[in-house]
């Protein structure tokens, strides 16, 4: 991966406040991250809160620091637009993803959600 230039590309979404960020290397999409403003489900965080909906990378680039760069792009975009706090829901017991978000400053805020699986909110 040395020598390859990476770029962030914003995709259009139906929601003008929602964002989809793609990490691109020479026209090849290596990952993506979606964000959106707070919904009624998380209204306890206030009207300026925003959610990281998902972050995904192609398997060949996991562990190369690109997830951190992609998350940083998405979070910086939200902060520049006055969105805070920023949160993410993760499956309870998902150690790898929980560790990733913890390394980037997200902490369990005590909120839980049940559906097909139990989710924990980090912000």
Distance between the termini: 31 Å
Poorly predicted tracts of residues: none
Give me the number of helical elements. Answer: 2
Radius of gyration: 15 Å
Give a verbal description of the structure.
- This protein is α+β, with helices and mostly antiparallel strands and 123 residues long.
- Helix content is 20%, strand content 39%.
- The chain contains two helices and seven strands, in the order E-E-E-E-H-E-H-E-E.
- It has a seven-stranded mixed sheet, covered by helices on one side.
- Strand 1 and strand 2 form a beta hairpin.
- The chain is globular and about 40 Å long.
- The mean pLDDT is 91.
Task: Name the features.
alpha+beta, seven-stranded mixed beta sheet, 123 residues, globular
Provide a quick synopsis of the model.
The chain has 123 residues and is of the alpha+beta class. The protein has helices spanning 66-80, 95-103; strands at residues 7-11, 19-25, 28-37, 50-57, 86-91, 108-114, 118-122.
Outline the fold blueprint.
Layout: E1 7-11, E2 19-25, E3 28-37, E4 50-57, H1 66-80, E5 86-91, H2 95-103, E6 108-114, E7 118-122
Parallel strand pairs: 4-5
Antiparallel strand pairs: 1-2, 2-3, 3-4, 5-7, 6-7
